[in-house]
Amino acid sequence: MSSEIRSIEEKNPGAESEKAIILDLPMAELDDEIRGYFQKCQDKIGFVPNVLVAYAHDLGKLKAFAAMYNDLMLAPSGLTKLEREMIAVVVSSVNRCFYCLTAHGAAVRQLSGDPVLGELMAMNWRAAALSARQRAMLEFAWKLTETPALVVEADREALRAAGFVDRDIWDMASVIGFFNMSNRVATATDMRPNREYFTQAR
C-alpha cells in the first residue's frame, strides 16, 4: 500500500474496510496537481470524495473527470448551483445510483438549508414544494434520463416558457448527460459514498 493511499485512508474513516469501488485498481503515483487537489478537498470539506479516489488509478481520466465536473457544477451558468445539484439528484433517482443520490442529496441539503428538501429530492422530487421553473427543469431531467428518444421540441419550448434561455438548456442537458455517465460508472463499479455524506446538513 502506497503512502498516498494510507494518507487518504487516514483522512477518510472506514476507507480501508469499505473500498471506494469493488474493482481492484491500485492508485497511481499522484502528481503535484492531484496532491494539491486532494488537499483542497480535505481542507474544504474534510475528506476526499470516493469518486475521486476511484478515478485515481488513472490520473489522466481523473483530471478529465474533475475538470468536466467542476466546469458543469461550479462555473458561471444561468442555472444556480442548487439547481444543478437538484438535477444530479433527479437523474440519480431515475438510475437508482446509491453513490450520487447520497453525495448530491447532501449537497441539496447544504445549499438549500432544508434537510427535508434534500430527502424529498432523493425519494420523490415531485412531492417537494418547487417553483414552476424548477419543476420544468426536473421534468426535463427525468425525461431525458428515462426516455431520451421521446424528447422533442415541445420539451425545449416548455423550458423556454419556464424562463430558461437556450444556453440554459445546453447547460441543463450537459449536467444531465454527465450524471447519467457518472451513475453508470458508479453502479458498474459498486462505488460507495463516504460516510461523511450521510450526516451532512441534517
Break the fold down into its secondary structure elements and pairings.
Layout: H1 3-11, H2 32-45, H3 50-55, H4 59-74, H5 81-95, H6 98-112, H7 115-124, H8 132-146, H9 153-161, H10 166-188
Helix pairs in contact: 4-10, 5-6, 5-7, 5-8, 5-10, 6-7, 8-9, 8-10
Task: Kindly describe this structure.
The chain has ten helices and no strands. The radius of gyration is 17 Å and the shape is globular. It has two domains: 3-74, no CATH class; 81-199, AhpD-like, CATH 1.20.1290. The model is unreliable at 12-17 (pLDDT under 50). With 202 residues, it is mainly alpha-helical.
Gyration radius, rounded: 17 Å
What fraction strand? under 5%
Query: How many beta-strand runs?
Result: 0
- Unreliable stretches: 12-17
CATH class of the largest domain: Mainly Alpha
Percent of residues in helices: 55-70%
What's the shape? Answer: globular
How does the helix and strand content classify structurally? mainly alpha
What is the number of domains?
2
**Tally of alpha and pi helices:** 10
In the CATH hierarchy, the third-tier topology of the largest domain is known as AhpD-like
Any guess at the CATH architecture of the largest domain? Up-down Bundle
Biggest beta sheet attributes? none
For the termini, the CA-CA separation is: 35 Å
CATH homologous superfamily of the largest domain, by name? AhpD-like
What's this, in brief?
The protein has 202 residues and is mainly alpha-helical.
Summarize this structure as a short list of keywords or feature phrases.
202 residues; AhpD-like; globular; mainly alpha; 0% strand
